[in-house]
TrEMBL record:
Pfam families membership: Lactamase_B (PF00753)
InterPro entries, A to Z: Metallo-B-lactamas (IPR001279), NDM-1-like (IPR050855), RibonucZ/Hydroxyglut_hydro (IPR036866)
Name by which UniProt lists this protein: Metallo-beta-lactamase domain protein
Domain Metallo-beta-lactamase positions: 16-218
Superkingdom of origin: Eukaryota
Transmembrane segments: none
Amino acid sequence: MMIQTHHHPSSTKGLSSLTTLLTTPTTSLLIDPPFLLPDALSTLSWISSLTPHPPSAIFLTHHHPDHFFSANPILSAFPNAKLYAAPYVLARINNEYDQKIKYWNEVLEDGLVPEVPRRPEPYPWSFFVLGGEKVGEEGEKGEGEEVVVLLGPVQGDCVDQTIFWIPGERTVVAGDVVFGRSGHVWVEELDSPALLEAWLKTLDMIEQLHPVKIIPGHMEAGWELDAEADLAHTRRYLQLFGEKVTYADKKLGVQELYEFFRDAFPQCRENLDFFLGHMANRFGEGGTVWEENRHQEVGEKRPEELSGYWLGGSGGMNGRIH
Ligand SMILES: [Zn+2]
């Protein structure tokens, strides 16, 4: 095994987002720094407990603040590390950057998020190579190098996400395309049937990679990863959301919606106000929509834009929205 993957859960207040570290005998690389500064500090000591090699880069899976806001102290500790995101992720960050900083600085106590979170540089390639012995002066191939593929843009809990596929280890770093079974799924941004169906297609695509390990975007501390169970959890959640919201004949009340999802997933106990409160208000009858989260205008996106990579023929779009 050349690349090893490790994951670190943020605090509950930091929404239990996962930070992933890739290590090889000679290098390391980080994916998705935490939301909150205290979690970034614990991430730093976690990194040094795992590798003597500073991360050469920090990659982001998507534009949500809980996956990039507190990169600053990590970048200060490792000044040579690049902060990268796919161009479509960076475009989404830029689209809402000012408003999200203003919102979270108002909502959270002082010192929990940076006043000016570092923005990533665009990473234009569809893969990177990690590890290996020192490459010689003539640029000959090093020993033990391994490829990591960026798959995207794909739909998850928002549009335009990247998942990281490590074929040599059959590992997927899924970001918020897969949610660990310990928590509720962020479905607040599923403004159209096309978005829901595109997310399900992303899960189908991941399944076809036959991964042995999936690192989800969120998982409470103390839970073990389980690729099959976490995929199944995310899929079941989306299917119930389809039944109760997207394809429902009648709009449920805010409280009714909240309680339905709370009771359907009794093992999910944290951050209910955030995950279920915003969702139930967004989609429940008479609810108050979280306007500060509406920068993306994704409801108009067509299935072809969202999962145009799916060339599998007429049966390929689940048949529901054509
Ligand atoms: Zn997230």
